[in-house]
Design goal:
Layout (H helix, E strand, L loop, with lengths): L18 E4 L5 E3 L15 E3 L8 H9 L29 E7 L2 E7 L9 H14 L4 E5 L3 H13 L2 E7 L4 H9 L3 E5 L3 H15 L2 E2 L7 H16 L7 E5 L4 H15 L8 E7 L4 H6 L1 H6 L20 H10 L3 E5 L1 H15 L5 H16 L7 E6 L40
Parallel strand pairs: 5-13, 6-7, 6-9, 7-8, 10-11, 10-13, 11-12
Antiparallel strand pairs: 1-2, 1-3, 4-5
Bound molecules: pyridoxal-5'-phosphate and zinc ion.
């Protein structure tokens, strides 16, 4: 269904939030669906002002008590009305309490349970609700793969046509997913950063709403709901740490925005410290935030198994750095060996099968624990951001898995002791 694209400038603003502030200079902008960046030096991103004035703690708790099992349970804090969301039940993912792990109280937030298998669905749901509220018929995105699969999924549910630009090397399962959901897909013969620039050009030239991370301020609005859930699932408390696999830094800034909004409603008495977990091959945020890291690291390796978090120019750098500073956080980059080991630990020790980029979070946790930065008994929430089924390279089954005859029962050995991380 390809409807004509109404002119965004003349359409009435149907958003609940009317303003956005520049993340660098703070200037307020009137917000329309097509509003993207401030024109101050550096062309900085915008952050939607959630006009909390009319939203009370009681209104939020009332909405939560209605117990909608999706991110729309926090409707009063969303920039657009719930009726524009899809039926897919994005969000409200489990928070597993694994009790003691490496001396800490360890929780995993299982974002692999989202409809397309990644946390990105939160952003896509929010963006598509904004699009639906304005009768927008076409949306474009540049992505390393998950955001594209996610937008394609939510677009299919919302009846909105989706065009995606991914790097040529996108994992084949993500490409399959994108095609299956009916999106138009182009593999750009270049990097994610090249795809990003191209999506921007197409969006400007053809007037198409662009969901690309950072540029579209509504992605953060979806991602902030992950923080709402963590706090609610912990009994309206923040953990000591939230560990966030990080590329563009938009999940990080979204999580921080979510905790800030709850604090503004007096729903939290303390704030968490955030960790940006990066790959050593894509560590701009870690280098910029932590001068010690910049001193010790000797040039990034050219390749990483964690392709989803591989970006040369993080698109939400300013707000990610602000979130790290304000939360007294940490930024750390881990090697592929650690990422692969963490992928195995998550699957075989915790029962959560994640893609490598996602496992960078556990690898970062293990390093910070060894270093003593994270202290015994502290409460740690690690985000498992995307399912492992979409990217099997890190943990592909070996070729020598035994083949046996249908009656060879004697050859099957059972038993043995497994290492398991117990629930509390
Ligand atoms: C599985 C997964 N984890 C983490 C991230 C990082 O998110 P951000 O780019 O907002 O830092 C991505 C981004 O594509 C992702 O796909
Ligand atoms: Zn500005």
């Amino acid at each position: 269904m390809n409807m004509p694209q109404p002119d965004m400038a003349v359409r009435a603003n149907r958003l609940r939030s009317k303003h956005a502030s520049c993340v660098a200079c703070g200037r307020l902008h009137d917000i329309e669906p097509g509003t993207s960046q401030c024109d101050c030096a550096g062309q900085e991103n915008l952050s939607i002002c959630c006009d909390l004035g009319p939203v009370t703690r009681a209104a939020l708790l009332k909405s939560v008590a209605e117990n909608e099992r999706s991110l729309w349970r926090y409707a009063p804090l969303m920039p657009v009305d719930r009726r524009f969301g899809t039926h897919l039940g994005v969000g409200w993912t489990p928070l597993y309490d694994f009790g003691d792990y490496l001396g800490t109280r360890f929780f995993l937030k299982d974002e692999t349970r989202n409809p397309s298998g990644s946390l990105k669905d939160r952003a896509s749901e929010a963006v598509m609700a904004v699009a639906a509220a304005h009768d927008i018929a076409d949306v474009i995105v540049a992505s390393t793969g998950n955001a594209a699969a996610s937008l394609a999924c939510i677009g299919a549910a919302a009846g909105i046509q989706v065009t995606v630009l991914v790097p040529r090397t996108v994992p084949s399962a993500k490409l399959t997913q994108i095609v299956a959901y009916g999106a138009s897909v182009y593999r750009v013969d270049g990097t994610y950063d090249d795809a990003y620039a191209l999506a921007r050009k197409v969006s400007a030239a053809k007037g198409i709403f662009n969901r690309s991370t950072g540029l579209n301020p509504f992605t953060r609005e979806g991602k902030k709901t992950c923080a709402f859930e963590i706090a609610e699932q912990l009994g309206w408390q923040a953990p000591d740490w939230v560990i966030v696999p990080t590329g563009d830094g938009n999940i990080l800034s979204g999580i921080w925005k979510g905790f800030l909004e709850l604090a503004a409603l007096d729903l939290l008495s303390a704030m968490p410290r955030l960790v940006a977990a990066q790959s050593a091959a894509s560590d701009v945020i870690a280098r910029t935030f932590d001068p010690e890291w910049a001193k010790t690291a000797i040039g990034p390796p050219p390749y990483t198994i964690a392709d989803s978090i591989t970006v040369a120019q993080p698109r939400d750098l300013t707000s990610a750095l602000a979130a790290l500073s304000a939360s007294k956080g940490e930024a750390i980059a881990v090697d592929d060996d650690e990422i692969i080991a963490a992928t195995r630990t998550l699957a075989s020790g915790f029962g959560v099968f994640c893609e490598p980029s996602s496992a960078a979070g556990l690898a970062a946790f293990e390093r910070l624990r060894q270093r003593g930065t994270i202290k015994p008994h502290e409460r740690v929430v690690c985000l498992a951001t995307g399912t492992g089924l979409k990217d099997l390279r890190a943990v592909a089954a070996p070729d020598d898995v035994p083949v046996i005859a249908p009656d060879a029962w004697q050859e099957i050995s059972v038993g043995g002791i497994r290492h398991r991380h117990h629930g509390a």
